[in-house]
Amino acid sequence: MRRIGVLMNLTADDLEAPARVTALAQGLQQLGWTVGRDVRMDYRWGAVDTDRSRRYAAELVALAPEPRVTRAAVIRNAAATSGTAQFAVIQAAAPSFGVEVRPVGVRDALEIEHAVTAFARSSNGGLIVTATAPSAAHRKLIVALAARHGLPAVYSYRYFATSGGLISYGPDTTDPFRRAADYVDRILKGQKPTFRCRRRPSTSL
Fold first, then answer.
1. Whole-angstrom Cα distance, residue 10 to residue 34?
2. CATH number of 53-170
3. For the CA atoms of 52, 56, 58, 61, what is the dihedral angle to 10 degrees?
4. Other C-beta atoms lying within 10 Å of the C-beta of residue 193
């Protein structure tokens, strides 16, 4: 039996988790690998890409033209490399849309609530929620805070929109797990993992 380690950026009890696990198992099954018989899956549960980060400021401005959004709180994980990279791209793109950005940490729920509440005290603000494990784990809180304070918000994944968020701009989070099975199959058969995969963003309301 071959052993596969899978690092997930969600918690094990997240409602999105079963679909991803099932998609990977189905993909492997189609290639002749049966989980529990041929392969063993060891999952490690959590607590990027920057191309779509350039779109966040534009999406946010388009959400609420009257009054115009001039400030954006960027919810990110400063401790993660991806969080720093995404914020840097947003920060660079924001001036062209006349938007001032401010980073907001997402280490825990209390920090998120305090930061968003304080940010909402001034007018013409909106939220940009980047792709981080903590923001995914606390997405219901973030969505609720945006609604409570009347803040237009753009999110990184579709499951934010299905959790009540206004709009998301990001990749399908389930299909890549099914397609990843092909890469796993190649590696298990001896191929060196030297390939790369790009994901096409999609917008969800």
1. 24
2. 3.40.50.2300
3. 170
4. 9
Q: Is the pTM of this model over 0.85?
A: no
Q: Where are the domains of the chain?
A: 2-47+173-204, 53-170
For residue 106 the two structure tokens come to 């997402």
Query: H or E element: which one contains 179?
Result: helix 175-188
Query: pLDDT truncated to tens, each residue of the chain (205 aa)?
Result: 899 988 887 778 887 788 889 999 999 999 999 999 999 999 888 754 445 555 665 566 555 545 588 999 999 887 777 667 788 888 888 898 899 999 988 778 888 999 999 999 999 999 999 888 788 888 999 999 999 999 999 998 888 888 899 888 877 778 888 888 998 999 899 888 665 555 555 555 5
What is the bridge-based pairing of β-strands 125-129 and 100-105? unpaired
